[in-house]
């Protein structure tokens, strides 16, 4: 729905957060609910983690920049946070980075009768010639329930998180 807007916002954020020693993990829009505006949630991190004062400063800076650039033309609330211990996985490269780690994945559609998978990332297809190009991004999880590998397309993932605890 807001895919192009997210890309535009992420570009602005990627230009801003390095001044604070941080990098963008990703941004998500959550639609407006009754009597409230949408939520723009921005996840940032740094090699040493992000403390509350940095989050506050970055939030103020981004709010000001987004207002000045008039990027978003509807009511919204900006939330800036770290990805947390059970880090959200938003981009295909996140799955590459965390190969070998335990994850929980919520799917857009059922695969083998399941909508949620929990297990270790055991494979990520990164070779465009083998994967069939940019549009075919496959992730293989060793599913803890079925005790077997299951392969899903990155584009079929609704939400992914690392599972540390």
Molecular structure report:
It contains 4 helices and 9 strands; from the N terminus they run H-E-E-H-E-E-H-E-E-H-E-E-E. With 165 residues, the protein is of the alpha+beta class. The strands form 2 sheets. The chain has a 6-stranded antiparallel beta sheet. A 3-stranded mixed beta sheet has the order 1-2-3. Helix 1 packs across helix 2 (52-69). The longest helix is centred in the middle third of the chain and has 18 residues, at 52-69. It starts with a helix and ends with a strand.
In short:
This protein has 165 residues and is an alpha+beta fold. Helices cover 25% and strands 38% of the residues. It folds into two domains: 3-81, GMP Synthetase, Chain A, domain 3; 88-162, Roll (SH3 type barrels).
């Amino acid at each position: 729905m807001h895919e192009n807007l997210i890309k535009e916002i992420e570009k602005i954020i990627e230009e801003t957060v390095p001044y604070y020693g941080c990098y963008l993990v990703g941004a998500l829009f959550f639609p407006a609910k009754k009597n409230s505006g949408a939520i723009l949630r921005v996840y940032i991190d740094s090699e040493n983690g992000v403390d509350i004062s940095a989050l506050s400063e970055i939030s103020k800076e981004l709010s000001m920049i987004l207002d000045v650039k008039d990027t978003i033309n509807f009511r919204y609330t900006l939330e800036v946070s770290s990805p947390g211990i059970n880090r959200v996985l938003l981009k295909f490269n996140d799955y590459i980075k965390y190969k070998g780690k335990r994850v929980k994945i919520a799917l857009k559609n059922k695969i083998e009768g399941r909508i949620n998978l929990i297990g270790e990332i055991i494979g990520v297809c990164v070779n465009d010639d083998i994967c069939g190009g940019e549009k075919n991004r496959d992730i293989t999880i060793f599913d803890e329930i079925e005790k077997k590998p299951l392969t899903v397309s990155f584009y079929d993932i609704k939400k992914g998180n690392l599972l540390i605890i």
